[in-house]
Amino acid sequence: MINVAVFGYGTVGSGVVEVIEKNKNMINKKAGAELNVKYVLDLRDFPGDPIQEKVVHDVNVILDDPEVQIICETMGGVNPAYDFTKQALLKGKSVCTSNKELVANHGPELLRLARENQCNYLFEASVGGGIPIIRPLNYSLTAEKIDGITGILNGTTNYILTKMDKEGADFADVLKEAQEKGYAEKNPEADVEGYDACRKIAILSSLMCLKNVKYEDIYTEGITKITAADFLYAKELDMSIKLLAMSKDMGDEYFAMVAPFMISREHPLYSVNDVFNAVFVHGNMLGDSMYYGRGAGKLPTASAVVSDVVDCARHIGKTVMCFWEDEDVKLASMDNVSHKFFVRVDKSKADEAKVKEVFGNVQVVQVPSLTNEVGFVTEVMTEKAFKEKAEELGAVISRIRIEQ
Amino acid sequence: MINVAVFGYGTVGSGVVEVIEKNKNMINKKAGAELNVKYVLDLRDFPGDPIQEKVVHDVNVILDDPEVQIICETMGGVNPAYDFTKQALLKGKSVCTSNKELVANHGPELLRLARENQCNYLFEASVGGGIPIIRPLNYSLTAEKIDGITGILNGTTNYILTKMDKEGADFADVLKEAQEKGYAEKNPEADVEGYDACRKIAILSSLMCLKNVKYEDIYTEGITKITAADFLYAKELDMSIKLLAMSKDMGDEYFAMVAPFMISREHPLYSVNDVFNAVFVHGNMLGDSMYYGRGAGKLPTASAVVSDVVDCARHIGKTVMCFWEDEDVKLASMDNVSHKFFVRVDKSKADEAKVKEVFGNVQVVQVPSLTNEVGFVTEVMTEKAFKEKAEELGAVISRIRIEQ
Question: Is-catalytic flag, B200?
């Protein structure tokens, strides 16, 4: 029997207990031992809940119990999860987490502590909810030099953008509806400003580089400025708009960013709708591969945490492979990053001839109902060149990058 | 240093050597040791090839060399690969294979031999080429009860169907072009009749059931009867036609089949085009997840073989987890399997009224250019009920199942 403790009995933590109970035959078979939830750490009590007898309020009860070998940290936030995780690892207890915040902030240090204490720090649930992505990167694509990762990593924004696309609605209205349905937080900033996706691409980028990509260094733009009009243009172009988090190995340097992008109907990420997430990975031998599924939600996320528990159970006393060094990666300046851009222009300030004079060869897009403006798609150009030309033109209403 | 031997220096075997050489820094780091290709087994010589000195014609040279710890079996076919693999495993040498034929025929026995001899029999490359799918099923989805797998598992047929969809061409013409381009074999039977996809879904089904699904028991229908007219109807329905291999846990029994299906634009498999493959997996906690990438080709397939080599290198002397028992699974009769059906009817033999009289509530589809016939979509019904009603109607030109 292997004793497990759950830190935090919120949505994911209670999901972990539920998954372990519901699929126990399959899980115990794969773990090679019976998993027993011995403790649940929470400030609250849960009278009437089957785990009420297991609830403790003092973390030291768990840390001092040599019978506990694996901890599921589903508290979220950096503190006190950071301190609790360190203490657990120092005592040789493996920790499985859904806490992207903590992993993005202290991943390399916690992985080192795990190695030094012959245990594991696993974080499959921290990116893409239930989608297997950390383990495929670490265990499956081992013969690849991974040189690009592009993901739809936030379910809330993807839900909002999907609704805007299908219903022609405006951002504020859809956000309000999403909040009423519980798909978006009351304070939606972390999602809609791209901060959540930023943490997640920092983690994936680090696993790509095998070094530390600091999330603070990643250029991040949210979806709050995307409008119903933008989707009218997207439709004319047979495209949709998605919040993409991406990371690329450009040979001598890496770049990473989070921003809304237009993508064409042919792109596999085009069909990733609603709260689904997907991660597109490019390797130098394999080419493109994609991993798709539910990026959030109680049971999918808990399922990923429990898959980490099974991994830990099969590797008691042994640290499994994860290359993510302390050394920080210096990211390339955004100025040098290139894409096509979709641009909306105020017709009263610049006509098509002027656009072509400044931007050269462009594809003009006219939405019949938007008579005061015109849209166009540029050739591939750097962010720096785009900024300069946009300033020269002086009539730009907005721009959205295009992913190809 | 870990010594590796490659059995068969064809497309995949030479790819294995190339991948190990090209990504050696990354691979050796992940393997935790330097990989050295010591032998290549082939009937031919390869003068001028960098591996010419390593070629041997007698398998016993390799089997008797205690320095060889890992073998890549990239010969294909059951014999003599079966015998060579057994002998290698009996000597405690791990075997990594791309040989779906052998895995589908003798998987459980070879896995048992590996366990008994503290080595491994790994087969990531046998399904979906370079797509990580075997390892995600075995190592990642360990907290799930997997209850459904649906895949586009054959690149040749997907290439043909994509071309037919996009160009309105007929099967025979596209096949001829595919053969000229090398995307289809001169004898295309294994691909176009669905036999290749059948082997692959047998392997995936076995990993879902943890028992043995015999490929001979799987209902298999190819794409040779799909016509340009079928795609005209598919377009009217906003659908495409894909060769799907599927397997479902229906609670008290399993079923598996390979056949062309219509799928709607909303389905994530709709966008899987050309030679790409994808596997859709449903778990009871996670819901849907999908794994997408290149299902064939020299380097993608070789990359999967080498990822198995890395796994073996990290687990010398230890058999990694794979549950696939010898016990055969009895599959459900196709009679009891249910879908919607798309049906084309000869108008001279039955009109819409007659169709509705026999099939009840149907969705009628008329392609303007096909004046002598009419199409319709049934409600969900069993294969048995469909057969009976189709016979009663007596005017059916053809039918294609619909996946929802």
Answer: yes
Residues in chain A: 404
Residue B321: its chain A contacts at CB < 8 A?
30, 32, 314
| In a shared domain, residues A171 and A212 | yes
- A261 vs A219: CA distance, rounded Å: 14
- Say whether A224 sits in a helix, a strand or coil: coil
Show the tokens assigned to B187.
């004898």
- Contact (CB, 8 A) for B388 and B396: no
Instruction: Give the nearest partner residue to A300 out of B286, B292, B302, using CB atoms.
Output: B286
- Residues A172, A289: one domain? yes
- Same domain flag for A85 and A31: yes
Angle between helix A100-116 and A195-209 (nearest 10) = 30
pLDDT in tens, A363-376: 999 999 999 999 99
Pairing of β B35-41 and β B2-7: parallel
Q: Are residues B65 and B36 in the same domain?
A: yes
Q: Flag if A142 and B306 touch (Cβ within 8 Å).
A: yes
- A185 is in which domain, residue-wise? 136-294
Amino acid at B6: V
Q: What is the mean pLDDT of chain B?
A: 96
Task: Give the minimum alpha-carbon distance from B78 to chain A in angstroms, rounded to a whole number.
Answer: 26
| Closest listed residue to residue B321, CA positions, set A172, A313, A332 | A313
Chains A & B: contacts with CB separation below 8 Å: 186
Same domain (yes/no): B64, B87: yes
Residue stretches of chain B with pLDDT short of 50: none
- Beta-carbon separation of B142 and A311 below 8 A: yes
Mode of pairing for the β-strands spanning A2-7 and A68-73: parallel
- ipTM > 0.90, yes or no: yes
Q: Would you call B130 and A299 a contact, using CB atoms and an 8 Å cutoff?
A: no
SS3 B386: helix
Q: Looking at the DSSP assignment, which residues form a beta bridge with residue A5?
A: A39, A71
CATH of the domain at B244: 3.30.360.10
* DSSP code, position B233: H
Q: Which residues in chain A are closer than 8 Å to B268, comparing Cβ atoms?
A: 271-272, 292
**The A35-41 sheet, strands edge to edge:** A55-56, A35-41, A2-7, A68-73, A94-97, A121-122
User: Are A19 and A303 contacting, i.e. CB atoms less than 8 angstroms apart?
Assistant: yes
Contact B292 A290 (CB under 8 A): yes
Q: What is the DSSP track for A141-198?
A: STT--EEEEEEE--HHHHHHHHHHHHH---HHHHHHHHHHHTSS-SS-HHHHTSHHHH
Q: What is the mean pLDDT of each run of 10 residues along chain A (404 residues)?
A: 98 97 97 98 96 98 98 96 98 98 98 98 96 96 97 96 96 94 90 98 97 97 98 97 97 94 92 94 97 93 98 96 94 95 96 95 96 97 97 96 94
Chain A nearest CA to B152, separation (Å) = 14
Say whether both B227 and B358 belong to one domain.
no
Residues B119 and B188 in one domain: no
Mean pLDDT value across chain A: 96
Q: Is residue A384 situated within a structural domain?
A: yes
pLDDT tens column, B117-149: 999 999 999 999 999 999 999 999 999 999 999
Tokens encoding B384: 């048995």
Residue among B344, B171, B340 at smallest CA distance from B263: B340
Do A177 and A204 lie in a common domain?
yes
Give A124→chain B minimum CA distance, Å: 9
**Inter-helix orientation angle B11-22/B24-31, to 10°:** 90
Report pLDDT digits (tens) over B152-170.
999 999 999 999 999 999 9
**HSE, side-chain direction, 13 A CA sphere, residue A121:** 30
Q: Which residues pair with B257 in a beta bridge?
A: B219, B246
Across the strands, what pairs with B181?
none
